[in-house]
Design goal:
Blueprint: E1 6-9, H1 16-31, H2 36-43, H3 47-55, H4 62-71, H5 76-90, H6 101-111, E2 113-120, H7 131-141, H8 147-161, E3 171-177, H9 178-182, H10 188-202, E4 207-212, E5 226-231, E6 237-242, E7 245-249, H11 253-265, H12 269-282
Parallel strand pairs: 2-3, 3-4
Antiparallel strand pairs: 1-7, 2-5, 5-6, 6-7
Helix pairs in contact: 1-3, 2-3, 4-5, 7-8, 10-12
């Protein structure tokens, strides 16, 4: 993507996995001096099919990818990596079944991150939500969701959270607005359990947690929640969620600058944890 480019991912649209594979196949075709018509003719495919493969709108089968790589003269480690990518793009994790493309793609991107940096001012970050709290959030977001759909979405959150306690855990740095912690989601019992979950998570060495108090006044996160994914194997990505789908930005620096200002305005971790513990006692 070009500087500060954005990709919006909607339910039913191209997945991020398909986009990544298609973009690389397009680059390799161009480097080999072949046109889309050349390749489509040699494969006995419609040119429109090849175009959809390259823009991520349609996932090619692994044998098709192998054929294209042969045409493009790609061998060795890159060939094997792209074939694995093609296979992985077509496979779905068990917990991805019947969740939206946007949900599945975010979870996939997060699974490739070594660190997640986030600001939340409307709800507790998904990586810290209890199942009961998550159910209330999902139902509020989509009142028409069936019980089965709600449980599948909650299952995705629970699966994502396992990375915080792995042998080589995901690092989480979160700034949470005070309002998100005082909002009585699901009632007092749900909130007491949720706030305890946050306090317990803050005791982990890989979790940095700060509360942005109401007293901080105007701040750089007033436009809403956003997250920066620090990725292991490619350029970092910033993302935020909208009703129309998730938006991903390749240029993360404006978000990183905002998060640094929010972190500076927030309470230190020890005071943040003490504040959350006090809030928990208020839910009776």
């Amino acid at each position: 993507m070009s500087e500060r480019a954005a990709v919006r991912v909607r339910t039913g649209s191209a997945t991020l996995r398909g986009r990544e594979l298609g973009a690389r196949l397009r680059e390799l075709r161009a480097a080999a001096g072949l046109t889309g018509e050349d390749v489509a003719t040699r494969m006995g495919r419609a040119h429109s099919t090849l175009s959809r493969w390259e823009n991520g709108g349609l996932l090619p089968r692994v044998p098709d990818v192998a054929f294209m790589l042969g045409l493009y003269g790609v061998q060795g480690a890159e060939r094997e990596a792209l074939l694995r990518c093609a296979q992985g793009a077509r496979e779905r994790e068990g917990w991805e079944v019947d969740v939206s493309v946007a949900v599945a793609d975010y979870a996939w991107m997060e699974s490739r991150a070594w660190k997640v940096e986030t600001f939340h001012n409307g709800a507790v970050p998904g990586l810290l939500q209890t199942p009961d709290y998550a159910r209330e959030i999902v139902r509020a977001w989509d009142p028409c969701a069936t019980a089965q759909q709600v449980e599948r979405w909650v299952g995705v959150r629970v699966a994502r959270q396992r990375r915080l306690t792995e042998e080589e855990p995901l690092t989480l740095a979160a700034v949470i607005g005070e309002g998100a912690l005082r909002l009585a989601v699901g009632g007092a019992d749900v909130m007491r359990a949720q706030l305890k979950r946050i306090v317990d998570a803050a005791a982990q060495p890989n979790v940095e947690l700060r509360v942005l108090p109401f007293a901080a006044g105007a701040h750089g996160g007033m436009t809403g929640t956003f997250t920066i994914l620090r990725l292991e194997d490619q350029q970092d990505v910033a993302t935020f969620e909208t009703r129309g789908g998730d938006v991903y930005y390749e240029d993360v620096e404006p978000f990183a600058q905002a998060l640094r200002r929010l972190t500076a305005a927030a309470l230190p971790q020890r005071k943040s944890v003490a504040m959350i513990a006090a809030m928990r006692r208020d839910f009776t």
